[in-house]
Specification:
This protein is an alpha+beta fold and about 150 residues long. It has two domains: about 10-75, Alpha-Beta Plaits; about 75-145, Gyrase A, domain 2 (2-Layer Sandwich). Helix content is about 25%, strand content about 40%. The protein has four helices and ten strands, in the order ββαββαββαβββαβ. It has helices at about 20-25, 50-60, 85-90, 130-140, and strands at about 5, 10-15, 30-35, 40-45, 70, 75-85, 105-110, 110-120, 120-130, 145. It has a six-stranded mixed sheet with strand order 7-8-9-6-1-10. Strands 3-4-2-5 form a four-stranded antiparallel sheet, covered by helices on one side.
Length: about 150
């Protein structure tokens, strides 16, 4: 059975020209960078390193685009993580998105625009913060996942 947890993640937005983002070296610190639009990338990282990730992105993108912006937008996002051997099957009850082996996709999850970071052992679903309860309830009821008590 799949398990649902609430990971302690931060989201750092980098807005810059497409050429600058193409050339940008992703930050370290365990951040996963997701290209969400030609002129936008989100770096999803552990909350404790968000300031370091933002600083790295600011330093790197400034050399590529004078008009670039880097913002910690964590307050605008909520994340849910599905783990366990049945996590992909459970996810299929909440979304028709085709999941890669690893990487990033975006589209509808529980009828909400979402970003999904796919790892070998977990799926992390990011949605705007105001969809927090809706997505949690849909994952529990539709996908039949068990919520882990923190």
């Amino acid at each position: 059975m799949a398990e649902l947890t609430r990971p302690g993640l931060s989201v750092v937005l980098c807005g810059a020209s497409p050429d600058a983002l193409d050339a940008l070296v992703p930050p370290g610190h365990g951040a996963r960078t997701c290209r969400t639009a030609p002129d936008e990338a989100l770096s999803v990282c552990p909350a404790e390193v968000a300031a370091d990730v933002a600083r790295e992105l600011e330093d790197r993108v400034a050399a590529l685009d004078d008009d670039a912006v880097v913002l910690d937008v964590s307050d605008g996002w909520t994340a849910w993580r599905l783990t366990g051997p049945d996590s992909r099957d459970a996810f299929a009850y909440a979304s028709r998105l085709a999941l890669p082996d690893e990487g990033f996709v975006q589209g509808s999850v529980a009828h909400v625009a979402a970003k999904v970071v796919v790892e070998a052992d977990a799926l992390t679903v990011l949605v705007p913060a105001y969809w927090h309860d809706h997505v949690r309830e849909r994952l529990i009821h539709d996908a039949r996942v068990t919520e882990a008590i923190p």
